[in-house]
TrEMBL record:
Limits of the Histidine kinase domain: 170-358
GO MF terms held by the record: ATP binding; phosphorelay sensor kinase activity
Coiled coil residues, start to end: 116-154
Keyword Nucleotide-binding listed: yes
UniProt KW Ribonucleoprotein keyword: no
Pfam families with a match to the protein in the record: GAF_2 (PF13185), HATPase_c (PF02518), HisKA (PF00512)
Protein name per UniProt: Histidine kinase domain-containing protein
Sorted UniProt keywords: ATP-binding, Coiled coil, Kinase, Nucleotide-binding, Phosphoprotein, Transferase, Two-component regulatory system
Amino acid sequence: QRSVLFLLDEKGKSLKEVAHKSIPSFPYRIPSKALSWKAIKEKKPVMNKNATRKPRITISQNLEKSWAMTVAIPMIGRDRIMGTLVVSRISSVSFPEEHMHILSLLADQIAIALEKNQLLDQLKLAHSNLQRSSEELEERVRQKTQEVRRIHERLLETEKLAGIGQLAAGIAHEIRNPLAIIATSAYYLGEIMPKDQKEVRKHLQILDSEINRCQAIITNLLEFSRKSDWDMQRIDINELLEMTLSLVGKDLVTRDILLIKKLSKVPPILTNLEKMKQVFLNLILNATQAMPNGGKLQIETSMAGKEVLKIMVSDTGEGISSEDSDQIFNPFFTTKPPGEGVGLGLSLVHSIIKSYQG
């Protein structure tokens, strides 16, 4: 005696062996005229008595003809037929009624177990999908929350900078006119002052130097408050760096600073010439001022990807403390002694670079 369990696929078009006893595995497709299909179609047990009563061990042909007596019992679940339970024996004597009853009960139990197993698999899959969706949703909410916070912080920063810019512009304009009068008066005094008045001339030179410093501060204030200039052109960034370095070359020598240039061949970029010149000049001046006793200033250009240009300005100065690192781009923040800076250089650099999404 032997038994085989066949499962029907979800589309109901093919039967697949999933378990067997007393016979080799049966990897072949079940023919449409096989007893199993008849049992599925009629939704009831079907018996087939082979008249030859000569069993054949080979199972490459119709299974039901390999044994003298075969019965196929449909495994009927709650919603659909799950497959068939096929039992065969060498004897041609029909299966007794009580055996058929037991086999039918067994087929029903198998169908229930299979349905439960499928439902359990579906439940596990649904739970897994739900958990994954929940995690994805949680991650999206987290990202959106962070994005909203960043936007809110940018808006606050923009409002703060706008207010500071307007205030700075107003103060700068108010100071510029009387400062121009002072500068003119100092120049006139220098012209009429006798040459032998060395002490007075020394103080006039100090006055002239401080006037120039004030004018530079006013220029930075006005530049900080001015709206972005979008006059764009393609420029060679290495040439612009060389031009900017020529403006501070004397200062580098005076401060005993060694200049190291590593300018790679990079494509021209679309930018505003004056804005980018301000960026480089502020970064270089900031680096040189960080090395009062000399040091090394390194400027490097390279490509960080197909469309990203990397420009690095580094120095051997003391650097920024961890307490100040979060504030260095804030307007009017400076670690320099009074009278040596107003803290707009890096803020201006940051503002310009952000406008280019850098």
